[in-house]
Amino acid sequence: MLPLNILAHSATTALGAGLDAQRQALAQGRSGLRRNDFGADPLDCWIGRVDGVEDVALPPALAGFACRNNALAWLALQQDGLLDALAGVVARHGAHRVAVVMGTSTSAIGATEEAYARLSTDAAGVAHFPPDLQRPRIHTPHALGDFVQAATGLRGPCVTVATACSSSAKVFAQAARLIHAGFADAALVGGVDTLCGSVLFGFHSLQLVASAPCQPFDARRSGLSLGEAGGYAVLERAGAGPQTALQLCGHGESSDAHHMSAPHPQGLGARLAMEQALRSAGLEPAQLGYLNLHGTSTPANDSIEAAAVAALFPPSLHASSTKGWTGHTLGAAGIVESVFALLALSDGLLPGTLNSEVPDPACGPQIRFENARADIGHAMNNSFGFGGNNCSLVFGKAE
Fold first, then answer.
1. Which end of the chain is more exposed for a tag (fewer CB within 10 A), N or C?
2. Are 96 and 182 in contact (CB under 8 A)?
3. For this structure, is 294 an active site residue?
4. Rounded to an integer, what distance in angstroms lies between the CA atom of residue 243 and that of residue 89?
């Protein structure tokens, strides 16, 4: 079933568009967080906003899909040779053999919010969306997958995964199953989520948003910083195309279903997902070189995840949260942080935990605040969503 070759990968975040922007900011310790300037009445917090999304113009043929989420999806798709890699797999297998598997948490709900805010009432007293937003295809949970398939011309299975913050990690596992089952030979996987009122004020209503930049695993942490991002990876059956330097080696998923928003107090689902991912990759815990943690900077999440990591991995593991750079990008967190794990493999830069300085005694020695450099063979990414939707992925260098 595994490994799968990774032909191209990219992320567009508050740090900028494409891999070079991500690697430079990670190396420099430069955060993309800014004081919230989103919306007419901004919440007092910090956000990871992507510059230039408002200036993106979709091609005329895709104008019916126009919204902030799809604009970011289009911007992210133009980076790092993704389209060239897709052209290659289409030439080898045909467009009908290339799947599209996208992850998102809120899809294009920002456009739906705007439509309701601008409702008009006709002579019969019936309320209607404004004419420019009477486009049903953007007001659905599947809007992202629908758009990406239309934008790329791929005709294989098309799936949108919406499991909160694990969405665009689970796309790798879903694509692996589609390829293994013979429904596809390759897949474009990814995720996009954009800032909107439902996200900002929804998380604020749960008392999870910090008024200052987030500090994952810091003893002083008080909540998360929300962000937006988009990213992709092109996967192909090993041996079906050119050799690649990086591969998807394993994945693990669990659903602990402990609570709608709180993690399992003993980190049961988190540990099951990590153990399954290691088993899938044929690795022992000591063979892992870097772990990108979910690390949202909320008091409960970080201590519980750290305890699960300490129970499974040796103290020598370098584990960190990169949300101090990008903010918590929700349904896009899985792809963004998988890209960071892939950069750790290709560049040898193991990110620390930005903004964090005071270690929490409840967190083990695996949690690192400073960047480090090391030549590693395997890296893991953790993405844990509301409702106990957990996913861990293992990436490695091709042998």
1. C
2. no
3. yes
4. 13
> Which entry of 9, 93, 328, 378 is annotated as an active-site residue?
328
Q: Token pair 């992709």 is at which residue?
A: 232
What tokens does 276 get?
Answer: 């399954």
**9 belongs to the catalytic site:** no
**Which of 9, 67, 93, 165 is flagged as catalytic?**
165
How far apart are the C-alpha atoms of 147 and 164, rounded to whole Å?
Answer: 19
Per DSSP, helices labelled H in 95-234 are: 109-117, 143-152, 167-180, 197-205
Separation between Cα atoms, residue 218 and residue 216, nearest integer Å: 5
- CA-based nearest residue to 353, from 273, 267, 290, 266: 290
Catalytic residue among 9, 251, 294, 378: 294
Q: Is the pTM of this model over 0.90?
A: yes
Q: In sequence order, which residues have a C-beta less than 8 Å from that of residue 59 and are 6 or more positions away?
A: none
Q: Cβ(68)–Cβ(194) under 8 Å?
A: yes
Residue 214: active-site member: no
Cα dihedral value 155, 187, 275, 374, nearest 10: -160
Which amino acid would we find at residue 35? R
